[in-house]
Design goal:
The complex is a heterodimer. By secondary structure, chain A is an all-alpha fold. Chain A has a domain of 95 residues. Chain B contains eleven helices and 16 strands. The chains are: A mainly alpha, B alpha/beta.
């Protein structure tokens, strides 16, 4: 397999800016933004098969912006990103997805959501049995299968 | 050249495993060729912190996205519903929700009852003992006594209702509509060497616990102990025939990519509704110029998917999220024909009890209900862990223009022509889907759900691949006879979903396996004159 070409420094800068616009830091929920260095490191390190699509998205973003996102004022940056989301197609959707999939596995974020910091296996989860008497009306109503000749 | 075998089975998935197990008692020399390998549960997604991210890559349900060496590409550009499957020992039972309804008795008589499509040449009663045997072998859980489903006897109790089940049950009771805990192939007790379910979460991309039945851990160990040989990483290119028009064996590529010929007395195809017609069409020869077993011209035609109309929303109460198997309940309230609804036939309902955080975030962003910016966190906390969904699984009637052919350009890694799908959703199905969405909205309204979203059809929802080598008694209107033997090639059998005449409104795997066991039983009863 041919190794994917890594993102350029300029692409990584724009990735960081747009990540922070998507999910900013929050004191209220005690969570970092998606532009956090650890989360950005996770995104870049695990791009894998998505690298080409994400690079295409960032190239499209750069074309819309005309210069690095960091150099735009806030209003212009918002306008560029709005256009990017409207016109970016599958590459833009892929970029959003890789940001979200790395953000929502970060320890600090999961902790804030009240989720355990672990893989599902081998501990699993406990499921309440629930109220089986809810089925009583269904049983009482009954019914029959349509007859087949 | 290899020594001839008595029976050669192509495909080690749901139906290939069942037919191999059943025929093993004959003590014939049985060989199964499978294009994939054995699964490694230690590598299943739920063993890692990045379990949800894997669904978008190497554990995608789409072979085109997944792109493993054992996958073959599928050109489904001309279809609103994309094919999903899995290739390996266990086939798509490795990657399914384990939802386990059966076709209803009325599903086998749609022409007689409703004047559409065709009746099957067999009825439900012919399959009853094989449904029961299959449920024991796969190890099902459920609650016997559903008044609107065929009687089943799951050997294990149903999954807990969890948090989501009672919410749905209360809403359905207020509406006065049928609901019932679904039969599943998730073990709720330790069963035949399988550990019980510990709620790893979403079951579809394989179960690391081994609680979900897939044929690599149910049928295959029994079949191999009984003497069946399973040869993996072997992709069959074509079925060959002799001067008498009988199948003589197959040409395949072994794990090193070397072309091999395997002679056989009997060939059984178990590659499901896309792989089977692809193989038959790729087996065209001078004697069979339109593809093998295709004198009817119906190989590849009448493809049925089951269009899914899904609607979901978010409730105030916590739901099971990723802490439970994804499906737990079904409804048959709208299963049978009621012409006042504006369409013929009907649909089953599957209830979805939640999603994991990454999936929720990704889909929420795509649907536009999860904003960017400072409000992101507040909205995400309202959505995550609060989803409930309703999916109408609509009966797809056979139409010849919905078909599998060979793509003129696309090929797999061995250079074998890939399948091309041409499919449209019929007007009848569209009306059925609209009805399902409207009823789903009533259910969600009753639940007080907000942020309602719709997937209709579910685009990557082509799990059920049916009808492309249908069974029947008339050789001009069917590919195989009423016990699975090709009309044209008398030592060639098909046992997978492609033999379905109609699709019913339920997940088909239980019925596919019952048919495979039924065909095997018919073969065993006719061994002395199998080719007459």
């Amino acid at each position: 397999m041919i190794a994917e070409k890594p993102l350029t420094a300029a692409q990584r800068d724009d990735l960081r800016i747009i990540s922070g616009m998507m999910i900013p830091e929050s004191d209220e929920y005690a969570v970092p933004g998606a532009d956090d260095a650890v989360i950005q490191g996770d995104i870049v390190a695990t791009l894998g098969r998505d690298t080409r699509m994400v690079a295409a998205a960032l190239d499209h973003l750069a074309k819309l912006a005309g210069k690095p996102l960091a150099e735009l004022d806030e209003a212009w940056r918002e306008a560029v990103v709005t256009e990017f989301r409207a016109s970016g197609g599958v590459p833009a959707a892929t970029l959003a997805r890789v940001i979200l999939q790395c953000y929502y596995r970060d320890d600090r974020v999961l902790r804030s959501l009240g989720l355990e910091l672990r893989a599902p296996f081998p501990k699993g989860h406990v499921l309440p049995e629930g109220d089986w008497s809810l089925l009583d009306p269904v049983k009482a109503r009954g019914g029959s299968l349509r007859r087949a000749p | 050249m290899h020594d001839p075998v008595d029976v050669l089975i192509i495909g080690a998935g749901a139906s290939g495993a069942a037919v191999a197990y059943s025929l093993a008692e004959t003590k014939m020399h049985i060989l199964c060729l499978e294009q994939g390998g054995w699964m490694k549960p230690s590598e299943y997604p739920s063993t890692g912190r990045d379990w949800e991210a894997k669904f978008y890559g190497e554990w995608s349900t789409s072979p085109n996205v997944r792109g493993r060496p054992e996958d073959y590409p599928i050109n489904d550009d001309n279809s609103p519903i994309k094919v999903v499957n899995f290739n390996g020992v266990g086939g798509s039972t490795v990657m399914y929700t384990a939802h386990w309804p059966r076709l209803h008795p009325s599903d086998f008589k749609v022409k007689t009852l409703d004047g559409v499509a065709d009746d099957w040449p067999i009825d439900y009663d012919a399959l009853t003992p094989f449904f029961e045997e299959n449920d024991r072998m796969m190890g099902t859980s459920g609650l016997s006594g559903d008044p609107l489903s065929p009687l089943s006897h799951p050997p294990m109790p149903p999954q807990p209702l969890g948090l989501s089940g009672p919410l749905i049950g209360k809403a359905m009771n207020k509406l006065g509509w049928h609901w019932w805990p679904s039969d599943t192939t998730v073990a709720t007790l330790d069963y035949e060497g399988r550990a019980r379910c510990i709620n790893l979460g979403h079951c579809t991309p394989a179960c690391a616990q081994g609680a979900k039945a897939s044929t690599d851990i149910t049928y295959w160990p029994h079949a191999i102990r009984a003497g069946v040989e399973l040869r993996t990483q072997c992709r069959v290119r074509e079925i060959t025939t002799n001067e008498h028009g009988m199948a003589s064996g197959v040409v395949y590529y072994d794990e090193d990519g070397v072309e091999q010929f395997q002679p056989a007395e009997v060939v059984i195809i178990a590659c499901n509704g896309v792989g089977t017609p692809r193989l038959l069409l790729n087996s065209a020869s001078g004697k069979f110029p339109n593809g093998l077993a295709n004198s009817s011209g119906l190989v590849g035609k009448n493809l049925m998917f089951h269009p899914y109309a899904q609607i979901y929303g978010f409730v105030k109460e916590p739901t099971d999220s990723n802490r439970a198997p994804p499906t737990c309940l079904w409804s048959k309230e709208f299963y049978d024909t009621d012409l006042s609804r504006g369409f013929v036939r009907g649909y089953g309902i599957q209830f979805v009890r939640g999603a994991g955080p990454v999936f929720e975030a990704v889909v929420g962003e795509q649907k536009g209900i999860l904003p960017w910016g400072k409000d992101h966190h507040r909205v995400f906390r309202r959505l995550n862990g609060h989803r409930l969904g309703v999916s109408a699984i609509c009966e797809d009637l056979p139409e010849e223009h919905n078909r599998v052919t060979l793509d003129p350009v696309l090929k797999d890694s061995h250079g074998i022509p890939a399948p091309r799908i041409d499919y449209t959703i019929s007007a009848n199905s569209r009306k059925m889907m609209e009805h399902g969405l409207a009823r789903g909205r009533q259910i969600l309204d009753m639940l007080g759900a907000t942020d309602i979203c719709i997937n209709s059809p579910i685009p990557w929802g082509g799990w059920h691949l049916l009808g492309t080598a249908r069974m029947g008694t008339d050789p001009s209107r069917s590919v195989v006879n009423e016990w699975g033997r090709s009309h044209d090639v008398k030592n060639l059998f098909i046992v997978d979903g492609s033999v379905f005449v109609t699709s019913g409104g339920v997940n088909p795997t239980s019925t596919i396996q019952a048919i495979a066991l039924y065909v095997a039983d018919q073969m065993k009863q006719r061994l002395a004159n199998l080719f007459d």
